[in-house]
Amino acid sequence: MLFLFPSAIFITIFLIIPAVWTLYLGLTNYSLTGLAAANPKFVGLQNYAKVLKDPEFYNSFKLTIIFVIGSAIIGQALLGFIIAWTFSDKPGKLRSFVEVIIILAWMVPSSVVTFLWSAFLNGQNGTLNKIIGGQTEWLITHPMLSIIVFNSWRGAAFSVLLFGAAIAAVPKSHLEVARIAGASKYRQLRDIIVPASRGHILTNLLLISLWSFNLFTPYLLTGGGPGGKTEILPIFVYEKALRYFNFGIASAIATIMLLINFVFALIVIRRGKQK
Amino acid sequence: MNKTRKRKQKWTLKRTGGRASFWMFTFLIIAFFSTPLLWLVFAPFDLTPRLNIKLPTLSFNNFHEMSQNPYAIHSLLNSLLFSVGTGLLVICVGAPASYALSRVKFVGRDLFLYILLLFSSVVTGTAAMVPIFLLCLNLGLINTFYGVILVMGGGLLPAAIFILKDFTDSTPKSYEESARIFGASSFQILRNIVVPIIRPGLAVIFVWAFVGAWGDFLVPFILIRAPERSPAAVLMYSFYTEGGQAMLTTLAAFALLYTVPVIVMYLYVNKRYGFRFYGGIKG
Amino acid sequence: MSGFVEVKNLTKIFPNGTKALDSLNLSIEQGEFFALLGPSGCGKTTLLRTIGGLEQVTDGEIYIDNTEVTYVEPGDRNIAMVFQDYALYPHMSVEENIGYPLKVRKIEKGLRAERILTAAQALQIQNLMDRKPSQISGGQQQRVAVARAMATRPNLYLFDEPLSNLDARLRLEARTFLKQLQRELGVTTILVTHDQSESLALADRMAVMELGTIRQLGSPAEFFHRPANLFVASFIGSTPMNLLDGKIVNGMVHVGDSHINVPFATKSASEGQNVVLGVRPEYVSVSSPQSGGFTGVVKVLENLGTHYLVSIDCNGLLVRGTVPDGEEPTPGSIISLLPDPKRTLLYDKKSGDLI
């Protein structure tokens, strides 16, 4: 029990207190400017009412869902699974090489990769335009697509590694029995690999969805723009808090986000337990 | 005879077709994941770096220019300090906790860990930025190294405990029981038996926390005001001219220097322990 | 107090409600090699672990060497334990493994080295001192584990299935060695095993447990010759005992179509009582068909080396006997199996106890 003490203190101070504080701030009109800065007042659920009436919030929420489905579910999980599956029975050297490149994309600090991507997508001189021979300002004309592709590129490694481990854990004999029974590659995938890695798939979907849902990095690429077209919820909160210094509203949105996270996690975990 | 031949032809054709599409796929994957990174390989050594990737006119001028920046080298040292500090903190606090949690059973323990994990991934994001800033303001931690290390460590701790618990779970119970029969104390068991056995896990967690702290932008961005205490992640954004143009010379060299340590650490861990998942992460 | 280890009214209920020990009493003599035998889940390991202090008791008392230790920390009981998986620390060499308990007990370096050497010599592992556990064989690991236990000079050894991870051949060797070592050291030893032959071979006295209670206590010979109940009878013996349902009619035991004399050892058998006739295949002789035994068709012959195990079918009743190598009947022939009346036992059908 003594061993738990330091962690308990840490987690209390740096996780629980900020969380409770967020909850509290969401109920006040605390702000850095104006009267409320000096003397924050308790305003009850006013902030929540305001947020839930704000069309910008719904827009931001919609963008976040598109971002999560596009980059986490399709870009990372699906692509990650296809990569892991394609290379699962390939020689170690080729597989390691592909894995190392994908992992590098994951490891390089976000400040660096966001610069690399803004350079890559630049209209005048970007590498992408040089390759395809265009002049498109991708971050301006296709901002959502840009951050979705970026986040898929950035985070695929986790899914590739996790699914790689899951597929490797399927006993070879199970696949061999299916092959002898005449099952096609697709059937082997559907009937043996997917059911056997069900737990991994669910955990992976849960984690990467949550990570993408709360990801701030796209801000470093588009700043939420142009014209709020990529203002996903984490950026929305950031803008409310540190641009308009409206801490009460920002905290209310953060609390709503936290709630969405919990409900989503609960659904995924319960589904995982059903079988 | 003829039939066999036909079959063989068909089989070969199918195989070649499969192979071709496999190599096509492999090429696309490698291209997609490596192209954006290639800039980092060429531009730092280019006399006149541009935004696009091109073969360099070999020169080390960029590094020279970068070293003229008063904060560049300093910020890398700051990053190192943050990362080592966070890594050590997470290990020293997380290892005993994971050991205790893997041995003490209570109802809802796993659910509790899950919730904590969820919590940490949300709270360390943008959601709790304001309270974290206010908290550090009240504790006098703004603009200090401790503040950044403590906040980053606190955020990484639940996941670290979660992963380390997997390692402690896999140490046979009989190891501790036999030590208890000899009369070893809990602390002796932790230090002499558990820690040496989960050393690979500790190394993985250290590197993981190190890399996390090394790349973290948001926490130091909010908590550090003085440029001489800023880590590399934040300083990256100061390499712009007054007109808003990126100073590609300094930036290229700096980005490379900033990236190399995490790659070296990754390669080390990969070689030493194998960069794989250790069970556990499944549901 | 009489025994060296005394267990009184010991009850252990796990948090999930499982009753592993049910007010159990046991007394083990000084210097004795005592075996606890039983199927998995019978509570034998729990009993050993409560004596070792690794499990808290729910109720009852434990005494070691006339001292109550029920709530004493395991490290203060002056005991040593050898685990089924040996629990050798993978990051320590053989020498460090043997020396670790001494280090924990703050024994000074010179004395420590001396004790390590003595233990290593006794187990003939001096040449392995610098190796890591992963670099030595299973048999050698087992010796290191015993040496580590020995080096602490305990006055009680607890062995939790120490031989079960060895292959069949090594197990026999290790068994002999363990018995010889225990004789030389003369230290009280408790062994837990699920292997009845191990228990018969090693123990001075033994207990068979079922559902947290002791079903029989005694010497290996008593167990072999006079199992006290059907549970023990079916558990002991490498070839299973014939246990045949019957009834006492006219002073004879009627089993199927056969009528057998009431065994000599039977003290009280009343007319009409439902009984179980027990006889080991080793105590059944083979003859040409005749009355007074079990007559039937030879179904299966199993080669046991020096003997054959013959199974015959007498109208649906399966009876087994052993015959020396070379005298085995041909499958399909009709023979009689005659139980030795001196070695035959009768059990009450209802209670399962020997009568």
What does this structure look like?
The complex is a heterotrimer of chains A (about 280), B (about 280) and C (about 350). With about 280 residues, chain A is mostly helical. Chain A is built from 15 helices and no strands. Chain A has one domain: MetI-like fold, CATH 1.10.3720.10. In chain A, helix 3 packs across helix 15 and helix 4 runs antiparallel to helix 12. Chain A is globular and about 75 Å long. By secondary structure, chain B is mainly alpha-helical. Chain B has two domains: about 60 residues, no CATH class; about 200 residues, MetI-like fold, CATH 1.10.3720.10. Chain B has twelve helices and no strands. Chain B is flat, with a radius of gyration of 25 Å. In chain C, about 40% of the residues are buried. Chain C is α+β, with helices and mostly antiparallel strands and about 350 residues long. The mean pLDDT of chain C is about 90. Chain C contains eight helices and 20 strands. Chains in contact: A-B, B-C. Chains A and B meet through helix 1, helix 5, helix 6, helix 7 and helix 9 of A and helix 1, helix 3, helix 4, helix 5 and helix 6 of B.
Overview in brief:
By secondary structure, chain B is mostly helical. Chain B contains twelve helices and no strands.
Write down the secondary-structure element order of chain B: HHHHHHHHHHHH
Please compute the radius of gyration of chain C using only Cα atoms.
24 Å
Helix percent of chain C reads 10-25%
- Sheet with most strands: strand arrangement of chain C: 6-7-8-3-9-10
Give start-end ranges of low-pLDDT stretches of chain C. none
Q: How many beta-strand segments of chain C?
A: 20
Here the CATH topology of the largest domain in chain B equals MetI-like fold
Level-1 CATH class name of the largest domain in chain B: Mainly Alpha
Q: Count the helices of chain B. How many?
A: 12
Describe the sheet with the most strands of chain C.
6 strands, mixed
Largest interchain contact: A-B, 86 and 81 residues
Oligomer: heterotrimer
Strand content of chain C: 25-35%
Low-confidence stretches of chain B: 277-283
Q: Which range does the strand content of chain B fall in?
A: under 5%
Class by SSE composition of chain B: mainly alpha
**What structural class results from the helix and strand content of chain C?**
alpha+beta
Average pLDDT taken over every residue of chain B: 82
* Estimated radius of gyration of chain B: 25 Å
Major beta-sheet overview of chain B: none
